[in-house]
Give the backbone structure.
Amino acid sequence: MNNLVTIAYNVGPVQMAVLKDRFDEEGIAYFIKDENSVYPISLYGGTKIQVQETDEARALEILKETGYLE
């Protein structure tokens, strides 16, 4: 099994929906961490998206294409 890498932090609900759709279209398995966390975003990084290490490069391209990363 490949290692998971965190590629995005503090993902809001609208951006999350866009990213989920794109990852699904590309066949990239993703995992959401801390989606229902009670801790403030500024302290613990909020909702995170993780992907398999082998999908990291393409997932980062998608983050750039969708405007999450500049």
Observations:
- The mean pLDDT is 85.
- The beta strands are 4-8, 30-33, 48-52.
- Residues 16 and 44 are 18 Å apart (CA to CA).
- The helical segments are 13-26, 41-44, 56-65.
